[in-house]
Amino acid sequence: MQDTLHAVLADPDAARQWAEGRLTKPLSAPAGFPTLSLQPAPPATVRRTESAGQVADREAVSARHRQQQQRLEQARRQVVDAEQELHDREADLATAEEKLSLAEEEQQQAEQRVDDLARQLKDAESDKQRAREAARQARDHARAADRAAREARRRADDTAAHAHHLAEQMPHTS
């Protein structure tokens, strides 16, 4: 992780990739990159033989070093935050993929139920059509039987009336 931070601090392209969250693997620190310590710089002590300019130069270097350490610490915090964000997004992705899998399974089951019900509906429609045809034929047959029964009743009545009439015309013998 420290090599990645060194690479980010030393290489603008690496810094851009890191800032955009596009790093796919740890980076290597560039050759000659100074190892930065997290320990604070020792207090500056002025030797009696140093000139005021030398003290100012050393203080400027120390201030730059502190700024670099602050930037490094900030970059390290950003790395931790970015890694936490990555972990959170990966967890969100896993949850979303699980929900997707369940939803696709439910969809497949629903489609199967629809297919089954469509087949049942088609079968029921065929059954209804057959029953409708059987009822029509039964109605036609019942009407024909009713007509035949009325006709037979009429002939029976006519025949009975004719027989009665013939019986009345016969002489009575006593």
Would you kindly provide a written description of the structure presented here, covering whatever features stand out?
By secondary structure, this protein is an all-alpha fold. The chain contains three helices and no strands. It has helices spanning 2-10, 12-20, 52-169. It is rod-shaped. The termini are far apart.
SS content category: mainly alpha
Please tally the helical runs, counting DSSP H or I stretches of 4 or more residues. Answer: 3
What is the assembly state of the chains in this entry? single chain
Q: How much helical structure, as a percent, in the residues?
A: over 70%
Task: Characterize the overall form.
Answer: rod-shaped
Q: What Rg do the Cα atoms give? A: 53 Å
Q: Which band does the percent of strand residues land in?
A: under 5%
Distance between the termini: 143 Å
What is the strand tally?
0
Helix-strand pattern: HHH
Mean pLDDT: 85
Q: Specify the biggest β-sheet.
A: none
Which residues sit in consecutive blocks of at least 5 with pLDDT less than 50? none
